[in-house]
Amino acid sequence: MAAATYESVLKDLKAKQYQPIYFLHGKESYFIDGLTKYIENKVLSEAEKSFNFTVLYGRDVDHMAVIDTARRYPMMAERQVVILKEAQDMRDIAKLEKYVENPTPTTLLLICFKHKKLDTRTKFGKLINKKAVVFESKKLYDNQIPDWINGQLKKKKFQIAPNASQLMAEYLGTDLSKISNELEKMTINLPEGSTISMEHIQKNIGISKDYNVFELQSALGGRDLVKANRIINYFVANPKENPLPKITGALYNFFSKVFVLNSLSSASESDQIKGLGLRSAWFLKDYKRAAKNYNRSRSENVIHLLREYDLKSKGVDRDSTPEGELLRELIYKILH
Q: CA separation (Å) from 108 to 79, 87, 200, 218, 263?
């Protein structure tokens, strides 16, 4: 079968177009959990679940236990649902090939192989690709997170300001489950159709609209020493919320784009947006301003500094200097 997408699998499930075997694998748990939850709650009625719903765990069962369960016939229902969770911990999972070759048509077998990708070059992997609905759940890249946030809010009939979605992405990283939970908390008390602003994020998620990495990037890009030092003082006073590795990682992404933009100075705006992996011209203006203050050579030096201090924050070539002082040193060197 052709590789499926999250949307295509969900669409077929909602249309009750069920297949005998679903194999979900990959490093992003969020999408696997979403499909699993739908199958758990929607395929069978509560009455049908009593005799026709089974959850197994890979670390607790062998292939024969899974096959024996999947071979059973449903009672007072069209089908039974068998979910194999933590399949990545099952030692003899490849021996399920006997069942995969000839699955029971009245069983929906869902195999959840999380946190890693199945090697599809193996005999079992090739067989799964041929016989099952296979969905690989991939981690999103950093620059894909703001669009994902926009999409999730659109489904809930909300909008979000561009700088607000960027701030959330910078602050929360790529953990989709964490982002989804924060969006749920933020929208639960807002009227439908609202636009999420920086103020909403500050109030509901605890991200300061004035003292965050996004604002630090802006201050450094514009060489605003007063604003940068004010933000750094806040970060040093709140180290748990603003650890140095998180700051160096965000600044590395920012200055890497500034470096690239210096190489695209003669390109069209659309090519610059594409080259930097940005979503719109709205975000380009900050990078253009920074590129005026940090030419190719200077932005390259900043990138080297960020690598150096990222390693120091993790204990490499570091003396007893507190993390807060390392941060002050780093920002001073970037600005001077």
A: 7, 16, 43, 52, 53
pLDDT digits (tens, 9 = 90+) for 254-294: 999 999 999 998 899 989 988 988 877 877 888 999 999 99
Report the chain (336 residues): mean pLDDT per 10 consecutive residues. 86 96 96 97 96 97 97 96 97 96 97 94 95 95 88 93 82 87 88 88 76 89 92 88 88 94 91 84 87 94 94 83 90 93
Pick among 2.60.40.10, 1.20.272.10, 1.10.418.70, 3.40.309.10: CATH of 213-335: 1.20.272.10
Indicate the CATH number for domain 142-205.
1.10.8.60
Q: Which residues pair with 84 in a beta bridge?
A: 56, 111
Q: pTM, whole model, 2 decimals?
A: 0.72
Token readout for 86 is 């933590």
Listed in order, the ranges of the chain carrying CATH 3.40.50.300 are 6-136
Q: Where in the sequence of the chain do the CATH 1.20.272.10 domains occur?
A: 213-335
Domain with CATH 1.10.8.60 in the chain: 142-205
Determine the Cα–Cα distance for residues 217 and 254; give it in Å rounded to an integer: 7
Tell me the CATH class for 6-136. Answer: alpha beta
